[in-house]
Automatic annotation (TrEMBL):
Keyword presence, Protein transport: no
Protein name from the UniProt record: Putative rta1 domain
Origin: domain of life: Eukaryota
Taxonomic source organism: Diplodia seriata
Membrane topology: Multi-pass membrane protein
Gene Ontology cellular-component annotations: membrane
Keywords attached to this entry: Membrane, Transmembrane, Transmembrane helix
Compartment(s) of residence: Membrane
């Protein structure tokens, strides 16, 4: 089949995937992200926790990204499903991370523990979200190049995506260090609010959830 015919059909002249995407695994992730997104949407409405909106958007993006993988099953040359899954699966985690960054700032302010933070909370969320946006742009740009149908452009796009992922990984590690440092300092020197019986359990649980999310 000629290259022009493949392009007209929306197919690349080469395999975009080096493997056949699993439809069953993709559907499993669709269900998981859909449930998580619906659960958090209900709670953000009930609690008016609007800073969880990025997390819900991230879950929606991941679900649609894995839907793209179901469309790519047994059709590794289809450009549309490839771009859909690549852009959404890579671009959605920064939305999930943005909520985590904002959550840490709110925990610090709620406990009146600014003195234990590595960085002032007014800058923490802004800085990390700015970095998230930079990673998002890099991954979208690289993903678009990978789906261009040109082998050289796809290779260059892959390097851009990998650069964005490495940058994001470094940011994740720095955030874990900041969160763990705050956790340890507040354990050693509790504030008046953090030492209250009911609050003590809640803030410790919140910190473990934040750290578990990043290690996962």
């Amino acid at each position: 089949m000629s290259e022009s015919t493949l392009v007209a059909r929306g197919d690349a002249p080469f395999d975009l995937f080096v493997y056949n995407p699993s439809a069953s695994a993709a559907w499993a992730f669709i269900v998981l992200f859909a449930i998580a997104g619906a659960f958090h949407f209900i709670y953000l409405i009930y609690l008016r926790a609007w800073f969880f909106i990025p997390l819900v958007l991230g879950c929606v993006g991941e679900a649609f990204g894995y839907y793209g993988r179901t469309l790519a099953h047994n059709n590794q040359r289809a450009v549309g499903p490839y771009i859909l899954q690549l852009m959404l699966i890579l671009a959605s985690p920064p939305f999930l991370a943005a909520t985590i960054y904002m959550t840490l700032g709110r925990v610090i302010r709620t406990l009146d523990a600014e003195q234990h933070a590595v960085m002032r909370t007014k800058w923490t969320s802004k800085l990390y979200i700015l970095v998230d946006v930079a990673c998002f742009v890099m991954q979208i740009f690289g993903s678009a190049m990978q789906g261009s149908g040109d082998a050289a452009g796809a290779a260059q796009g892959m390097h851009i995506v990998l650069g964005g992922l490495v940058f994001q990984l470094v940011v994740f590690i720095l955030f874990i260090i900041m969160a763990a440092t705050f956790h340890l300092r507040t354990n050693r020197e509790p504030t008046r609010i953090s030492s209250r019986p009911g609050v003590e359990v809640l803030w410790r649980r919140s910190m473990w959830v934040l750290e578990l999310y990043y290690w996962s």
